[in-house]
Amino acid sequence: MLVETREIGEKQAPGEKPPARRGRAWLIVLILVAIGAAAIAWRAGWLPGTGVSTQTDTSTPRGRRAQMQMAPASVTEATVTRGDIKITLQALGTVTSTSTVTVRTQVSGQLIAVNFREGQDVKQGDLLAEIDPRPFQAALAQAQGQLARDQALLQGAQVDLQRYQGLAAQNAVPRQQLDTQKALVAQYAATVEADRAQVQTATINLDFARIKSPVDGRAGLRQVDSGNYVTPGDANGIVVITRLKPISVVFSVPEDRLSEIARRLNAGAQLPVHASDRTGRTKLAEGTLQTFDSQIDQTTGTIKLRASFPNDDLKLFPNQFVNIVLDIDTRSGVAVAPSAGIQRGASGTFAYVINADQTVAVRPVTLGVTEGENVEVTAGLAPGDRIVVEGADRLREGAKVDVRAAVGSQPNGQPAAPAAGAQNGPEGRTGGRPDGARGQGGGQGGGRRQTGGANGPQGGGAPAPSAPAQSAPAKSAPAAQQPGSAPSP
């Protein structure tokens, strides 16, 4: 066997054949180019059997996009109405009691009885607890005895004074003795007054031994048990009484809204206030605005307001966090449109108005206050105008639209009828899929896309075998096949 050798750097002689591996590389490149050209020709419909058509081919993404751009856009409409809209202000509030009292003893002693239940509704003057009264009864008796003794001394001094006055008129006693007796009577009179004060003090202390509720409200948890020695200096007291009916809510609003609120209050208006839970979904109570604070918080730029609630059903409790909606005013007879129909762009806010010929026009609008899902339109729209509220993504000035009824909007409660163009294909005959996806058999659904119903295999009128529910949608063939073209698979 002969082995050909060539030194490094030696050039190939003219006419000498290239190595075999270089030929194989060129062959692979040619095969790949041919495969790519065939794929492009098949996608474009140039190959025999693909059915070249002058109409748009919906089997390709570009064809489907072109056909969707030419077809009317499926939209949902709403009508601008004339009505009332409220000017509201939302805020975060905290429930506060109108009266919260920590009941403490005013005298020191042993607690011998607790006469309330935790959570009990009490009235002003109800007996809550009792302290051992015996020391106070003894003090009262001692004060009363002292008073009686001093009153007797006063009466004796007064009798002597009358005797001295008679004798002094006859010059029987010195004038000095008469003056001394007058001073003694005045001294005893002052002592009697002091004794009477001591009696009153002992009576009050004895009454303080019976601890009573100072206000109407709800008794909280008991802070001390019977048998303990209580003093006025106890920090926790005996019980906390909280008034729950009525109750108030304190909330803050921006200082810029104060002038509007103050104007309404000064005019004598009763501004409704609505309180809801933390999530804002459950309405708890309704009340009225009472007043606002006397100064603005400089750190936050807000001012505090207080609203009162009857709270008959006890849904509000002190320190509870609530969402507040304050109704400041109501504008009557204004144009009201759904917020979903207002579009926003670089030029500002606008709306797509549906004309009588089922085309849309771009209408700039000026907005007022917003209430829930509705907004006041001060300029640009009039009551009775039809605007697009859904499906405005691909709209432009003068675009054709196909208005579809919203779900459940039929008067008789029946679902909306199938849209035009969604009659072919197994899903097309039943009204299409609501999301606008292509139906089985190639027909476009009757939802957002309404353009492809006639393009499926069943578009020619021949019935097609039913496909399984989970099978993939078959590729659609061109709407009009040329003579000699092969049927679509």
Describe this structure in words.
The chain is α+β, with helices and mostly antiparallel strands. It has a domain of 66 residues. The protein has five helices and 22 strands. The strands form five sheets. The protein has a six-stranded antiparallel β-barrel with strand order 2-11-14-13-12-15. The longest helix has 36 residues. It is elongated, with a radius of gyration of 49 Å. It starts with 19 loop residues before the first helix and ends in an 86-residue tail after the last strand. 23% of the residues are buried.
Give the termini distance in whole angstroms. 59 Å
Number of helices: 5
Q: Specify the biggest β-sheet.
A: 6 strands, antiparallel, barrel
Low-confidence stretches: 1-11, 48-56, 407-489
Question: What is the H-and-E element order?
Answer: HHEEEEEEHHEEEEEHEEEEEEEEEEE
Q: How much is the radius of gyration in Å?
A: 49 Å
Give a concise summary:
With 489 residues, the protein is α+β, with helices and mostly antiparallel strands. The chain has five helices and 22 strands.
